[in-house]
Amino acid sequence: MKHMTAGPLPAPFLQLMLALLLTLSWTAIAQPGGDRGQACLDSNNARECGWFWGHLDDDEEEEPEEPPVEIPMAKASEEELDCTDPEQWEPSCGFVDPEGSFEFQAKQRDMLLNQSVMNPNNPETVEAFQRYMRWAVDQAITMSRMWEWNQIQNQDLNPLVHSPVSSFGLRAASRARDGKRNAVMEEIDDQNGFLVWFTRSSCQFCHDMQPVMRQLERRTGLTIYNAPLDGGCMPEFSNSCDTTGRSVEAAGHLAVEAVPDLWLYLPQDDLWFRVSSGVEAAQRITSRIEVFFGAIQRAAEKGLEAVGDGTSPPVDFSVPDMLERSSGGLGAGIPQGVE
């Protein structure tokens, strides 16, 4: 038996085999599935087909990834803010009474000022700062009254005691407060209140203050008793001068260290308080009596207790409301001439 030896294949056979391989390869690439092949054979199919890109199915097209949506931090609305909390307070809250917190008022001051200066045509921002300033002015008025009270009640704080001549010519501005003044003086008189003026016969300033004391009597309608510490009465007050020696005892009790020194006494409550020390104008002393007496009344109504050693009465210099100020009351403000 003859064995057939492998030899070179005929060229036509090789060409046939190569064509067959190419056909199978193209079919495998272009038609991985029956449905795709059918789609590519459809002449009405507008989708692209071919060995390079294959068949682009709509259901296999990758959808572009959407960028992540940033969720803004939820900001508390004005209704949710606790505007009385310094940590939560914002300029949109407007001015809030700091209730004794200096840091809280400073925060409001700076932010409301910044807001109003940078938005000067916005009525709301300007109004918010105006309300802060209204509060600040009221605080300043209250402090100035307490300042004057301390200065008059403690002679070592009063520059008028040591250099009275430089301030003698000063006069408080004229104010239409006769109606309120008369009511205050009448109430003091109803309590049998009177003024006690401590002097020394060797005190030149005491002699110079005699016309002022007479004017004060006319303005207030209160009796002024001269209480000489050396037994020598002021010439114009010889008829209302105490020479029994009780003046020295009273001066020691009240810690009178320098003269002239003027005190108001309310027998009903056995209450003493200083209204002038040194050389001053009658109008200034009258105004001070009104303010001090009003402060003592408010303290009594609120049940406040005296501070310190208790020798001075409790006082409340809180600023009265706008109506009282506008009508010429004890508070600050421009009187409107309506009682």
UniProtKB/TrEMBL annotation:
Keywords (A to Z) from UniProt: Signal
InterPro entries: Thioredoxin-like_sf, TraF/TrbB
Keyword Signal: yes
Highest taxon, organism lineage: Bacteria
Residues spanning the signal sequence: 1-30
Listed Pfam families: TraF
Keyword Signal: yes
Protein name: Conjugal transfer protein TraF
Organism: Vreelandella nanhaiensis
